[in-house]
Amino acid sequence: MFTITFRFESGEPVVISANAGEKLLDVARKANVAIDAPCSGNGVCGKCRVRLVSGYLDAPINRHITSEEYAAGWRLACLATVTGDAEIEVPDIASAYRSRMKMADLSSPEEIAIFENLRKQLEDAGIAFGSDISFLSLELDEPTLDDTMPDNERLLRAVEAAAGVDESAIMLPYAVLKNLSEVLRESNFKVKCVISRDGGRILMRDVLPGDSTDPLVGFALDVGTTSLAGVPYTYQMLQRLGPAAMDLPRLRYLTQAGGRLPPELHREFAAWAAETGRRFYVMYGQTEAGPRMGYLPPERAVEKCGAMGIPIPGGRFWLEDGDGRALDSPEASGELVYQGENVAMGYARTAQDLGRGDEWGGVLRTGDLARRDADGIYYIVGRKKRFVKLYGSRVSLDGAERLLCGRFPGAQFACVGRDGLLSVYVSPPSGEAAEGAADYLAAQTRLPRGAFRVCPVEDIPRTEAGKTCYARLNGDG
């Protein structure tokens, strides 16, 4: 075991023991040291920078840290592993809970002046500054042998008399009730009630000893969003507003995962980010790999629009044909295979399966069909097992065909698509099946009607073996 000491620009250090080989970011999380890592610790965003003051860490040089910075001790916490005792400086910019939140208890003239200045700025901006919290000081009769009224009823009657509100309009939550007996007796039944008024109703927020001086109300101010994460549907909603309408001057990063982003959306947000000096990360992953496997470097987001990108640091991609042979030629398409330490050990369906050990050996066959261009950038072109993602839900194309064939016997169907759109080819081109297929799928999947497009055709294309020839059908309808 080694000793890791986290030091901050202000505040007491945090000391914790760690094993050899542990990631420094994981050690920090165990110690409740909140280091900002919006890319889930995959070495992509570069925001988890820390400085090695003394001791030993195993950490590679990467594109986020120059040689000069590395010589000065700077490392990425997500890529650094423990190899000995170490003293780590966590700068304010990396420590979310020590830099994003500034606390003051208004105990000094300087803090009061800052608070009053802030209040004036808010009021000048037309922002209401106030609270519905107020105090009610009460002195209750102590219980006797002749007065055995329950504590909650004793309190409610006292509040009713002091506030002029009927007892039935006073709400006493369990969070207050559970400590009531102890507070009453420790304070000799002299208490300060913290209440909120809503018309003719009163909510009891707390009951404190009558001489309590603890601060009860705080004020929080968000100084600006610095990163924005979303799935394709998130960016579709943002597109309706227009990126320029987002008044986020402190925004530095945008990340996208959860399915393939339509090329037009990719192009629009990548161009906007480049024009405004921000970084737009398109990412790729699956739950079985922890869950990030690839990303598109933001400096290539416009040039490689529609691409998934490259493997994360420490990971590796390659393509295989149907017989499991590696495909090395540029622009060849095959199943995307990933290798990395973040790959799961396998699937467990019963408790006994948990004892089987690592069955995958760090290799994940994704089921996605991809191609690799001459620059080594990967593009997802389809699903080996024919799934598409619609509004965040995985939908089986084969399952959709089975549903339609069961509902419209006599008609023929072929389903193809891409993330965001499922195209239904139907023969014959007119009749109940052509008119009702999209509505039926929308009802069965509980997805919007616009996720489905019907393409009437005279005949469904077939191979020589009589199977549906999906390669001749356009996934965009």
Give a description of the structure:
- Helix 7 links the parallel strand 10 (227-230) and strand 11.
- This protein has ten helices and 24 strands.
- Helices cover 22% and strands 30% of the residues.
- It is extended, with a radius of gyration of 31 Å.
- It has helices at 24-30, 67-71, 96-99, 109-124, 151-163, 174-186, 232-241, 263-275, 397-407, 432-445, and strands at residues 2-8, 14-18, 49-58, 74-76, 81-90, 133-139, 170-171, 190-198, 201-209, 227-230, 253-256, 279-285, 292-296, 310-311, 316-320, 326-327, 333-339, 363-372, 378-383, 387-390, 393-396, 412-418, 421-427, 452-456.
- Helix 9 (397-407) crosses helix 10.
- The strands form six sheets. It has a five-stranded mixed beta sheet with strand order 2-1-5-3-4. A five-stranded mixed beta sheet has the order 10-11-12-13-14.
- The two termini are 60 Å apart.
- The chain has four domains: 2-99, Ubiquitin-like (UB roll) (Roll), CATH 3.10.20; 133-209, Ubiquitin-like (UB roll); 227-383, ANL, N-terminal domain (Rossmann fold), CATH 3.40.50.12780; 388-472, ANL, C-terminal domain (GMP Synthetase, Chain A, domain 3), CATH 3.30.300.30.
- It is α+β, with helices and mostly antiparallel strands.
Could you give the topology of this structure?
Elements lengths: L1 E7 L5 E5 L5 H7 L18 E10 L8 H5 L2 E3 L4 E10 L5 H4 L9 H16 L8 E7 L11 H13 L6 E2 L2 H13 L3 E9 L2 E9 L17 E4 L1 H10 L11 E4 L6 H13 L3 E7 L6 E5 L13 E2 L4 E5 L5 E2 L5 E7 L23 E10 L5 E6 L3 E4 L2 E4 H11 L4 E7 L2 E7 L4 H14 L6 E5 L21
Parallel strand pairs: 1-5, 7-9, 10-11, 11-12, 23-24
Antiparallel strand pairs: 1-2, 3-4, 3-5, 6-8, 8-9, 12-13, 13-14, 15-16, 15-17, 17-18, 18-19, 20-21, 22-23
Helix pairs in contact: 9-10
